[in-house]
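ingest -> fold -> write
write: protein_1
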Amino acid sequence: MYQIFYESTPLYDPRDPDLLVRDPSCRLAVGEAGELSFTVDPDHPYVDQIALLGQVSLVSHGVTIYRGRVRRATREFNLPVVVETEGLLTCLN
């Protein structure tokens, strides 16, 4: 079971119908930063908390498999928010 957290707030948890995201995509590779992107609907309870450079983590069965920061969060009026993150290795560049 996968979960997505923004800071310590859950954005995606399949056990809770209020905490859903659409189109999640994660690219992981050894020695590279990796990427995670997803879409958050405007009626999501925590959509207003997402800000640039905030920390996002992807957890699988209690183990963090990806940690990154928000690179882009595109939002317009009442449309879904497209969130793109980059792995924390990019902070070292």
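write: protein_2
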Amino acid sequence: MPAQSATFAVLSCTAATADELPVDAADCGRLLELLGLVPDPRKRRGVRHSVAAVLAIAAAAVLAGSRSVLAIGEWAAEAPQVVLAALRARRNPVTGRFGAPHADTFRRVLRLVDADAVDQAIGVFLAERVGIDAAECPSQDTPATRGLSVDGKAVRGAIQPDGRAVHLLAAMTHELPTVLAQRDVAHKTNEITQLKPLLDPLELTGWAVTLDALHAQRETDRKSVV
């Protein structure tokens, strides 16, 4: 099995839990706006497809069932014009038709792009879809009404060049469930060290966070993340 990038693992893990989340074509603009904040690792010369469009099409392909970069390329090549237009694929100035990136483009972008930046962008998008807003959170005088579960898993089918599986620490809402944030747990560290970076970007006032027993640490308790 060919090695997959950490970004592919992020997309796969998110798609596995997002199938019940209502997202329509009108939401594509916001997703592309957020993905546009992800730094493009490529040299400007020769770039035909924006990094936001490549990532958005890849995310749609994975959500549709693609389990490899090759499958993403095949899905994109067969995608209807209306889908490619919504995901802002490059439009041919002569024919007026939207063209999908080649599989090699997907492979290069997913390998080079910052997986954490992609995850943060998608996490913000999903958080907005499930209605996380500080103004809607209960006050400190009332019980928390929403829950977030933090758990770490090896991602099936996502293999690193050294043959090891990609291990992600994910924060998932109880209701849908939907992944709001993920962290790649490198082999030289562990889930404990990645908990704070995982939760710091999220506004969790009024939320109850459930964790595995291994996170029963003094430092975690002092930071009041539970």
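write: annotation protein_2
The radius of gyration is 18 Å.
The chain is about 40% helix and 15% strand.
pipeline exit 0
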